[in-house]
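Hey,

Quick one before I head out. I ran the complex with calcium ion overnight. Inputs first:
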Amino acid sequence: MTPDKAIDKNPAIVSAQASIKEAIALMQDKQTSCVLAIEEEKLIGIFTLQDFLQLITSRQDWEKIAIAQVINRNLITLCIDNVTNSLSLLQVLQQYRLDYLPIVTQDGRLFGLVTLSTLLENIAQELQTYQEIEIELRTNEQALQINQDRLDSILSSLDDVVWSLDPHNFQLLFLNTAVEKVYGRKIAEFIENIDLWRKVIHPEDKERVEEAFNALYSTLRQDIEYRILLPNGDISWISVRARLITDASSTPLRIDGITIDITERKQIQERLRYDAFHDGLTKLANRNLLIDRLKQAIRRSHRHETNLFALLFLDLDRFKVINDSLGHVFGDRLLVSVAQRLEKCQRIGDTVARWGGDEFAILLEDIADTNDAIAVVSRIQTTLETPIIVDDREIFVTASIGIVIGDAQIYNHPEHVTDLLRDADIAMYRAKSRAQGQCEVFEPSMHAYALKRLQLENDLRRAIALIASSEEKKSEFSVFYQPIFSLTTQQIEGFEALIRWQHPEKGTISPIDFIAIAEETGLIVQLDRWVLKMACHQLSLWQKELPHLAPLTVSVNLSGKHFYQSGLVEFLDRVLKETNLDGNSLKLEITESVVIENTEAAAILLDLLRERNVQVCLDDFGTGYSSLSYLHSFPFQVLKIDRSFIKQLGTEEENDEIVRAIVNLGLILGMNVVAEGVETPEQVSQLKDLSCHSGQGYWFSKPMNSDAMTDFLLKNL
Ligand code: C2E
Ligand code: CA
Ligand code: CA
């Protein structure tokens, strides 16, 4: 068809053509969309969208208007109600001599081009553009597909389950393959059985999950962790994050969620939890768990006084010796065996705990009375009677046990758990002080005693701090001297230095009452060194002031704790140098147990002392091991017979024989034998008859301070 010149000249058509061009120009110019309005097959105008909206809203029959929206230079969307087929469109074009009119589907794809065939050539170029656009659109579609594929592959490679449910009928909308790994079941099973995910919830967690799921409709999001049952019977932990997706009017559209397998994390948490409440070595409950259970027991007994409980505190006797001599690995194995035996003694509901080191604690719940607790204790002591075999070695173990009954009157608040533990500890110490393998039930008087002890310890620290700060004048300590006499010449040979403590409020405190505390707390080292220094200074002073005096020696007591303290020899050297004293003026008194504790170290130390001519006295002989082999193999120069033997002299034949044997032993080994605690002239003569060299005791003189001792020396010159 050739363009009809007549029509061409039709002013309406001219105007329509112009309008199209105008529209395109306007659109290009303004970079905006334009609308061609056609009414009853007549182009009524070209409008901007805004103007057009105004136009149609002002008209009641606006839906009859067929519009072509100029989207860009080539695309004109037709929103046609009354012009539904291409024929009428052709009429429009013919009538108005429009060059072309593209038809675009609602989703934006080019559907066709309405045109007059004669104009085809003119628009060939444009057509090509449409094809390009189509290609572009198709490429976009492909890109979209690629993205979709990529998304699918990501979803299927995830370890976490991604899912989507219809919120009304719970049909699955989406589920990725990870579900097979997490639930151990095929995707198909979940699709076939929409209730399967519910069925596999651990029975104990079902109610909780159901509640959370229901709450989703009000909270829109729920995070929950729960257990599921796997087909093989195993249990897995999962974490589920669910979101309710709604439209603008809050109508639920989907439930989307992610499910993560957290079994491993839970196992780690569980292990950490276990570790936090159990002892790594013995696997028994640890302090934390014990304290927790004790608090519960206190609460229960507070509520019902009939709920009586008891706490046993158990400390192995001489464990340190085993540990030090046979090594820590051995010690650890022994502790494990002891723990196993203790566990066998426990009743259902009891808690056996390792308190630390060689200390154990047992909480006995629901006991009738103290006898029940004592029965458990004797069971424990009986099981420990059989030697424990570690590395083919038989070890005999005993334990000192303190018992506290959880009296609801005394321990009536969970915070009293510390009192409870303290009292059990006090009772245990009391048992230990009696002998090995004993038990003791706590009584409030013990607490008073322990308090007194603690007070004494504090006072001791304070008093030692004073001497350490070298404020000698304020010192509460002083050194007394007790002379030692030769039984043959009746002459004074030397003195034993004995510490005295003048407490500002309590008066004189006997060394018997504070030396043990000083040893336990390690304070003894400072104390012994102070005495050593003072005694050496005093002796050197007497040597200077009383030059006519025969050479005298001073004996200083050394506690076992001190004996092995590093730096002892250096300290000795310094004091001797400072006081200008010869090594042979000094004697150190130690007990047998000190040597036996660590024979190798003792041998080295004793050699070092011998190099310095410092003599070593074996104190309190006869009360300890009295082992001949030690006496023989170590270089002791003096043997001090304990005063308990001297006291018995002349009472029974047998006692005299013991003293005789000890003296003879000393003589054979070439030692100087000193009798302690000589109180009567009869004892003096008897000892002389037995050829004992020296004597010390009230018969000769009580210990006295340095001034009194100076007078005493002057008198005895
Ligand atoms: P010890 O080493 O056996 O000291 C002798 C104790 O017997 C002294 O008691 C002394 O006063 C007492 N005594 C002396 N003659 C007689 C007597 O005829 N009859 C009686 N019944 N007792 C007599 P003291 O001074 O009370 O010391 C007690 C213990 O305290 C000492 O026993 C010693 O083991 C320890 N000790 C004293 N001073 C020190 C010290 O500076 N360091 C250390 N580590 N321990 C010390
Ligand atoms: Ca002594
Ligand atoms: Ca002694």
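The chain has 27 helices and 27 strands.

Talk tomorrow,
K.
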